[in-house]
Give the backbone structure.
Amino acid sequence: MAATLQLYLNVLGVAESASVDDIKRAYRERAKQFHPDLNKEQNAHEKFVLINEAYEFLMEYKAGKHHTIKIQTADEQLKEARARASAHARMRYKAFTQTAYYKSTASLADMLDVFISLASLVVFMLITVFAYKQNGMGGLIGALIIDILGIAVIYMITLNRNDITVTRYLHSFLYFIRWRYFHLAFLVLINIWIFIKIGFNTFTSTEALAVVYVLLPLLLFYLLRYAGKQKPQLISFGLLPAFISLLLIINFTFSGPQKHETYYYHLAQDDTGKESTLIYLEGDVYHEFTGVRLFLNFSEVISHNVIHYQTATGLLGIRVVKSYSFSREPIISD
């Protein structure tokens, strides 16, 4: 086992401590170097096959599967790897790079390069628009110069790397948006946004929201892990909260008729006496619904003393705040 491991480490030119990203990057470099379509040496085919064997072995090793795998199964996997490699070796290199197998070797580092590059381009565009609005044509010209320099830096860091081509850059981008953790992160952000924008404007307790958005996903996650199911994170922390969010959206969107409610309020204070954006309504109305009394704009809340709600009953029978506004009025004493 140790001798085989060292052999395959030498084939890819990586250390045993190499990360999965390091192994993927090394594989792509050597696959391009020794693919028979690009390398006309007599033994290029054998080297290419060995590179693929090494890659699959090391990926399995990093996953910890070779600690418990049976020898017969390992031999079968090795034969399958050789057969795959031989088939890929007979293909044109460009066709090989279009295969699902090759695309699956995209490293996380490459995908992060793509994400950072695209985010940088968006920032450059926003700077350009802002500069034009603030300073006219002079600002536009200055921003365009910054854009050109910034894009040149992005090109040198990513597209101009020896191991990354424009085609591979696009492949990494497609792989990134299909990556399950990208889907999970996207769903989590959407659910957080819906939780704040709609959940807080629904007449339900924050404890109930915490249960359905936090405790239930945690419970489902551990149940799925215990059952050995695939993608427990995506199902538990992405899809389940997304289903709850969908119910909140349906209840909020299909609601009516609207009712106008007006209340005097005062600001809550913490233990140090500092005021917050949580308000208390006169008569302690809606004291059990923290969400409808919590706001983000401190200056707006502190500068007024009256809140106007437009409430309605949702399709699922749960009341919601459709809109609200603030005003300042003199307090009328009895």
